[in-house]
Every structure is written in C-alpha cells, then in structure tokens.
What we know:
Blueprint: E1 4-9, E2 12-17, H1 18-34, H2 42-60, E3 67-68, H3 70-80, H4 120-128, H5 132-146, H6 149-159, H7 166-172, H8 179-211, H9 220-271, H10 291-317, H11 326-353, E4 356-366, E5 373-379, E6 396-401, E7 404-409, E8 412-419, E9 424-434, H12 437-445, E10 451-454, E11 457-461, E12 464-466, E13 476-484, E14 488-491, E15 517-521, E16 524-527, H13 537-543, E17 544-551, E18 554-561, E19 564-571, E20 574-577
Parallel strand pairs: 2-3, 5-11, 5-14, 8-13
Antiparallel strand pairs: 1-2, 4-9, 6-7, 7-12, 9-13, 10-11, 14-15, 15-16, 17-18, 18-19, 19-20
Amino acid sequence: MNKTINIxxxxxxxxxxxxAYQKLKRYLDAIRKSLSDDPQGRDEIITDIExxxxxILSERITNDRQVVNENDIDEIxxxxxxxxxxxVDEELFNDEPKARKSISTxxxxxxxxxxxxxGVCSGLAHYVGIDVIWMRIIWLVLLFGxxxxxxxxxxxxxxxxxxxxxxxxLQMKGEPVNIDNIERKIREELSNVTSKVKDGVNNxxxxxxxxxxxxxxxxxxxxxxxxxxxxxxxxxxxxGKFIGAILILIAVLTLLxxxxxxxxxxxxxxxxxxxGFVHYPEFIYNxxxxxxxxxxxxxxxxxxxxVVLFMLGLKILSNNIKSFSTTTKLSxxxxxxxxxxxxxxxxxxxxxxxxxxxxxxxxKEINITxxxxxxxxxxxxxxxxxxxxxxxxxxxxxxxxxxxxxxxSTKINVDIKPTDNNTGYLxxxxxxxxxxRLNANNTAESxxxxxxxxxxxxxLNGYFLSDIENQLKSQEVDITIYLPVxxxxxxxxxxxxxxxxxxxxxxxxxxxxxxxxxxxQEDGLKCLDCDPSIFSESYRNKENHFKLNIDENxxxxxxxxxxxxxxxxxxxxxxxxx
Length: 578
C-alpha cells in the first residue's frame, strides 16, 4: 500500500502515489541540476516543463479521484525525453528506454510575438505552413475584395487563444514539446529580451539626458499615430509584394511568348527549312539581314529587359535573392546594345524599301461598240484563298500557287468611264513601292493579274499574285473600263465591293450599282432599270420640282416629274397650258 500526495503542476492539482512522486521529483531535480551551470532562465524553463507535464497528466487522468502512478511518470519521461545530455545521473533512468520519444502536435494559436492586429494572420500562417506575408495578402483580399474578412477576423481574434507559454509556442509551430526545444525557445526569448532591455536602457538614458523626464510616457495620440503608421507600413509592404508577384507574372509570360515565337519563327530557318514550315512577320521579308538573325535580335532586345524585371520582382518578394554580378550585368548590357543596333540598322533598311512609288500601266482593247452590251463579273480562284467570303480586302495572304508560296491580295479597284473611241478598252494600272523608282516600277510590273473577254462577258480576276517578299510595299491594281457612248453595261453582283467611285448621273452609291443595266452617256452611266429610291436626294429633287411665279404679267407654273414637263401661264388673255 502506497501513500498518496497532493501536488500542483502548472496550476493543476493531482493525486500521486509516493513512489511516483519521488520519481517525478528526481526527474525534475535532474533537469534543474543540468541547468545549474547557466542559471539564466532556469526557473522559467522548469516552470514550462511542469506546465507541459501537467497538461500530459491531465489528458491521462479521467476523473478527479484517479491517482498518478509510476507508469504515468515513465510515460512522461518517454514523451519529454530523458536529460542525459545535461549531466544527469543515469542511474535515475536505468529502467527507461534509451530511445527518446517526442510527440509533435500542431495547434492553432495566435502569435503574440509576430502580431499586427491580434496575431491571427501569423498564427494561421504557422498552422497552415506558409509565410505570414501571404496569409496577410489573403486577408487583405478577403477584407477589401469580398468584405467577409471584416466579420471573420474579429471572430477568430476572440475564439483563437494566444500562445502564452513556451509549450504553446512550440505547439503553434508544430515543434515537439520536449526539454531540448523548451530550453532552446526560452533561451532565444531571453536573448531577445536582453537585447531589448539594453536598447530600452539606452533609449531611457537618451531620454533622460534630452528631455529630463518631461515626457514619461507616450500620449494616447502618439500611440494612435504609431498604430496607424504600422498599418500603413504593412499595407505598403503587402502592396509591394503584390507588385513583385505581378512583375514576375508579366516577365514569365513575356519570356515564354518570346521563346515560343523564336522557335516558331527562327528554328526552321536556321535548319534551312524555310518554305512551307513557317510564316514570318511582314517586316522580316525582303531584308538585307537573314530572318533568323532578326528574330534573335528581337528576342534579345525584348527578353533582357524582362529578365531584369523578373529579378526585380524576385527581390521585392524576397530579400535573400542575390543580384547579378557586375560581369553579368555588363555582358547583358553589351548584348542588349548590340541587338538594339542591329534592329536600328534593320529599321533603316526597312524604311528604304518603301521610300519610292512605282507604277506599270497596260492597255488592252475590248471589242465593244456603241450598241453592244458588256457584262462585267469579278471571279475568284477558290483553290488559292481560304476566305469564306470573296470581297475586296486591304490585308494580304500567303498562298500556294503550284507549290510555290506567293502573296495573295484582293486590293482591286474597278472604275468605269466614257471614251470618244468607237470601241472600248481596258486600262490596268499596277502600283508598288520600292527603295528607288526603278525597283518600284519593276516590282509593280511583276504583279500577276489576268482577265478574260468572251462573248461580251468581261471576267476580271478579283485578286492578284506577287512575290512573297513584297508584303509591305502597298501593292494594288486599278482597273478602268472605258466604254463608248450609248453602249450598255451590266454589273454582276460580284462587283459590289470592287467598284471604286464610279461616275453616274443619278449619283448611285457603288454598293447599290450591281445587278442593274446602265447606258453610257457623255457625263457618265445612267441606270435603265433602277428603283428611284436608290438615286441621290439631290438628283430626285432635280428631276421632280414645282415652280410658281406671280408678278404683274400674271401667274406662271412649271411642273416637272422625271421626263414629263408641264408649263401653265395665266394672264389677261386666259390660261395657256403646254
């Protein structure tokens, strides 16, 4: 039969038998003895260890009458670890296993040592396992983005306890609560307290010297200003981290786009497989420098600034990121300047490629006389372009003509004018740009355009082909159909987008002219079967008017309705109607 003793561990009362009490006392004495060489913080360490032992025993004791026995103390020493590293007499623990067993259980607390408003963010960051700055960013998004943070944060502040003891601080970070960690944590805190005390003493001394105790404490207003300053500083830090993340995202996306573009545009050229594999941007063609070299210059000129931007974003997020060495910086700067000079030379060369305008005119007679009817139609080649709708466009397209890459364009302008000749004719004007007038004229002449006249049916190609290197030389084809007076013209619906300000006496818009017959007159075409509603308002007013004139000679009335006219005169002689 053993006697029981009442003890107090960490503010908790226990019933313990005498043998277990003696063993627990020897255990604590051994720990105290191991700390005797350095008494700083010894009592606080022992107090925290007793608190931890009390917590463990309270979990094992199911009711107030249960007595702590020797087995419970053995389990305590297994969890807390035996102090064999602290000059302890090993005979006290001969019956314990040699292996140290410690339990690491992470618990949610508020971190009072790294708090801004209550320590909720820092406590959650420890519990989740992320940096506290990201947790604060998340809460800022919840506060200002969704608004729910204003309700949840104060609630968590109230419900989550603050880590007060050393054991709670270890549990908050998921570290094992044993003798080693408790001693280490307390010594760290004591070291911080010592430095703060020294700084405080120095500050007090300075205050005493300068103000002679005129201000013994900060005023409430000063506390408010300090708190607001901390809030503003924290917000600026969060904004800075957010800006750093945005810079990294922009830099990474840009660099990935450059890498993809460089491989898409330049790799086949380097390997010698240009045709059929890759379509370069328009400014690459017809250049003195090879396309792959221009691609490298573009990649370097854009990529190096974004590499620097990427490093800047990393340094904003973390102060541990090292900058480039001086040699690396100078090397990148030199390569970047070389790329800029190369692109500058390329820009000058490109500008000279379109400095002059050139034309090439051809005239073809078409056998259309004054009484003939000419039908005009615009045709396409469906095997060339993949556009669904055939119409005039101002962009270009790269197509294959018998396995050869060529430039495809539908910039065709069609105009119709009268001629004094007995037969009609067709004038084709090709235009282009070049580095000088002669080259521009030769480039214009090389434009491939065709038409066909069969049984008074004029079939005009709605496209032309050119060399692929002429993309930015503003090439186009202007076609003017000259018809003798009194000849008849029919415009097919395919001509609607290709007509270019065709003169007609009824001022009909180009888009309304197709699908009608016209008669050529000296001042332009006249529609023979159009609805008058498509005529211009000025023409309708000119064709239909009513004029009334009253004076001393009587009344004169003139009425005109198209080709019909009527004149009425009333005077002393009576009424005269013509």
